[in-house]
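Async update (no meeting this week)

Hi team, since we skipped the sync, here's where things stand on the single-chain job. The sequence we agreed to prioritize is pasted below, unchanged from the tracker. I ran it this morning and attached the output directly underneath so nobody has to dig for it. Comments welcome in thread, and please keep replies under the output.
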Amino acid sequence: MSERFGHYQSELYLQAYGGTKPPFTTDPTRLEAEAERVLDPGPFHYVAGGAGSGATTRANREAFDRWGIVPRMLTDATERELSTTVLGQTLPAPVVLAPVGVQSIVHTEAERATARAAAGLGLPMVLSTASSTSIEDAAAASGDGPRWFQLYWPNDPDVCGSILARARASGYTVLVVTLDTWSLGWRPCDLDNGYLPFLKAEGTAVPFSDPVFRSRLDASPEEDQAMAVLRWISMITGTDRGWDALPFLREHWDGPIVLKGIQHVDDARLAADAGVDGIVVSNHGGRQVDGAVAALDMLPEIATAVGDRLEVLFDSGVRTGADVVKALALGAKAVLLGRPYVYGLALGGEDGVRHVVRSLLADLDLTLGLSGRRSVRGLGPEVLVRR
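Output:
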């Protein structure tokens, strides 16, 4: 049997018996408010904010509430199996830490803290191209832990190839290519705060440490930071590619390739036709297109259409163990957790990330058992009813 993540509940109660309450909340609905108290407005709203009116961010959560779990009794669910295989890797639970850039704006240890926490739990962390930490330093922090790399696709092929080669050499095994952020969406909170961390060279560790990118500059980033920032921003924004660009990735990456940002079933079929290994059904947490469909609403149709041809992962709106159960039941192989662990990072660095993720895993473990299910494998729509 896999690790009993639900034991974290007993651990917390035993600490309370000794007079120590949890240092951070176990309630995922309170994390955002607690993080807001410790962060400046710019960084907080950069993490918490969405596109436009925030309608898509709200829709993501409302979509989960439209499904109810139907518990079953006397199913011998004392022991549960949360481990699963995702893209050829055996994971202790179907949870991956989503790519979130510029983590230095919420904690000085940034991606290094997240990498250590993820590795300690045996879960993959997806390092963002917009990381505040270099590819190599984040890998060192991960140690022997599983690690994936997320690509914002530079329009300079040689720079792109160099970044991918560094990631492979540093032990990143899965490439997650974000498709939906080739230009920033309209984000009023960031605009009103005049806050874009990249303009101050936050989240630029990957290009600034890349030899090919540096060779494109007239002066090093240390000598002319502003020009280096502008060169990088122009290199990763403003270019929307076509499906015929995907073979470039296969030429430069010999591991699994996953396309993140799929929301239409026809795009899922095109991804399968292109021979990629997986997709992430995602609307970037509501940060790109205001008024877009909730990601969870599109998951069942997409999973039915292509789930036998590639692996379907999911993100956008995941907050609780029940959310994980629902996403798996609707066809996801695993979920990516985003904002909650970043709030944990803001509250307590590595300890905060670990606490938030352990809380989610404990909730998942207990919800699975108390609803009468013994394994995350094989969960299907019969687990749910539409409210």
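Quick observations from my side:
The CA atoms of residues 262 and 281 lie 5 Å apart.
The mean pLDDT is 97.
Reply here if anything looks off.
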